[in-house]
Amino acid sequence: MTLKFSQTTATPDAADVDCAIVGVFEDRSLSAAAARVDEASGGAIRRLIDSGDITGKIGSHALLHALPGIKAARVLVAGLGDPRKFDGAALRRATRDALAALRNSPVTSLASWLTELEVPGRDEAWKLRIAALAADHQNYRYTATFKSKDGTRAATLKSLALAGRDGAHALAEAEAIALGVRFARELGNLPPNICNPAHIAAQAQAFADSHDGVTCEVLEREAMQALGMGALLGVAQGSANAPKLIVLRWNGAGNGIKPYALVGKGITFDTGGISIKPGAGMEEMKFDMCGAAGVLGAFVAAVELKLPLNLVCIVAAVENMPDGNAYRPGDVLTSMSGTTIEVLNTDAEGRLILCDALTYAQRFDPQVIIDAATLTGACVVALGKHASGLMSADDELAAQLVAAGEASLDRAWRLPLWDDYQSQLESGFADVANIGGKYAGAITAGCFLSRFTNGQRWAHLDVAGTAWDEGRKGLATGRPVPLLVQYLVDRCT
Ligand code: BES
Ligand code: MN
Ligand code: ZN
């Protein structure tokens, strides 16, 4: 369940909520809302600034209880940092930090006036969307496998009112996107023994069953064999969990209009196969289906928004395991396109399932194909965990995706796909090798995919660094759902 969003024109002293959030800058200046609370409470905020308890530093906060003259039982004073640097990212951060500070509190209803703050170049609708999504992101709890404890891990916070006047549409949009982000995060976080290819297929089917105008088709191994998907099936052959090719369709624009195609890498666990990965951190490879989760989440949001476009979402759901029947380094696979591939490393499996999914996507005669994949560690080395890697031979499409990333604060950064890199994929035994040597690994992976998208308007998002937070408690982020939804919304205006 997402937070219940609403907008409010109430002043923070008069709002009937468990907690009101107002902001103070690090130069000790008060936001209008903080000034209002200060005045109504007889100077409570100024006194705490003078005593040094409130600093206004970004990320800091003070939680004040039972202020005189204030209806809410609590006021959270959020630090806003330097007023000259206050931007959309600061609004998002201050909102997330405020909710984090309330994480273990009994607060069920919250209202924030941070959306009243001026953000250069952004309108009210934008601020409401970003703040609502930031709050819902922070309020998400993974609970599915904590069966031994009672429900205490569930979030107590239920509703969020944001200061605003014309934001009803923006909040409806935020709710749809939040649903998509949650859909993606939950699939990502589930353990790989639960979230296997059949589970993803069942979730897609359940979504289609519960939403008018959505159809779901799941291709089984035999159907993929008939189509000649030798690359995808090569990866799948070492796993007891059968592969699924999931096709969701939304016809928001009616018949005869070319769809947008989203294609996702859904490796539900990546051991590396016979080219097995080292043990340390291997559990993180349960997140190797986050590209699939991302395109599914974007699909969910697009349907919830009833976007007036046609959309097809194709997920290759496969497990990459070592086994007596597993594919080997040296194997030559024949892809659905007919291109033969020499496997030089069974851990470069994502591109092998995607190449057949990309070929399959072309039968829908799409106007654009965008794939999302946790494809390479090299992309994480290149860009870290802040930007997804974006590759496309189409300058206009690349620019649109970069812009969508900026607008949604879910950024992507373009890497080149020049032909110069293609020679790294040469093979002595097949049309192409599945790895490109030690340099430019993110790009050579993109180059590999490009060989299966000839003549298409296509872009590739490598989300290996952005789709989850590292470490023992690292959760799926839901990226690139916000970017993809923004891209689709932008195509409708
Ligand atoms: N799923 C991994 C990529 C990955 C690694 C994502 C680490 C996030 C964190 C992918 O299947 C993989 O193993 N890629 C190899 C490619 C190599 C064998 C050319 C890699 O990046 O090492
Ligand atoms: Mn791999
Ligand atoms: Zn992988």
Description:
It is a single chain. The chain is an alpha/beta fold and 493 residues long. The protein folds into two domains: 4-157, 3-Layer(aba) Sandwich (Leucine Aminopeptidase, subunit E, domain 1), CATH 3.40.220.10; 181-491, 3-Layer(aba) Sandwich (Aminopeptidase), CATH 3.40.630.10. Helices cover 33% and strands 19% of the residues. The chain is built from 14 helices and 17 strands. It has helices spanning 32-40, 44-50, 88-101, 124-139, 168-189, 197-209, 221-227, 230-236, 290-304, 350-361, 377-383, 395-408, 441-450, 481-491, and strands spanning 4-8, 19-24, 61-65, 74-79, 109-112, 159-163, 214-219, 244-251, 260-270, 310-320, 332-334, 340-342, 368-373, 388-392, 412-414, 432-433, 458-462. It has an eight-stranded mixed beta sheet with strand order 7-8-10-9-13-17-14-15, with helices on both faces. α4 (124-139) packs parallel to α5 (168-189). The chain is elongated, with a radius of gyration of 24 Å. 55% of the residues are buried. The model has no long low-confidence stretch (mean pLDDT 98). Bound molecules: ligand BES, manganese (II) ion and zinc ion (ZN). The site of ligand BES has 16 residues, from α11.
Which range best describes the helical content: under 10%, 10-25%, 25-40%, 40-55%, 55-70% or over 70%? 25-40%
**Count of strand segments:** 17
CA radius of gyration is 24 Å
Report the top-level CATH class of the largest domain: Alpha Beta
Largest sheet: 8 strands, mixed
Question: Are there runs of 5+ residues with pLDDT below 50, and where?
Answer: none
CATH topology of the largest domain: Aminopeptidase
Pairing-aware structural class of the strands and helices? alpha/beta
Number of domains: 2
Bound molecules: ligand BES, manganese (II) ion, zinc ion
Strand order of the largest sheet: 7-8-10-9-13-17-14-15
**Assigned CATH architecture of the largest domain:** 3-Layer(aba) Sandwich
How many helices? The count is: 14
CATH superfamily of the largest domain: Zn peptidases
Q: What multimeric state do the chains show?
A: single chain
| Average of the residue pLDDT scores | 98
What is the strand content?
15-25%
Give the overall shape, derived from the CA principal axes.
Answer: elongated
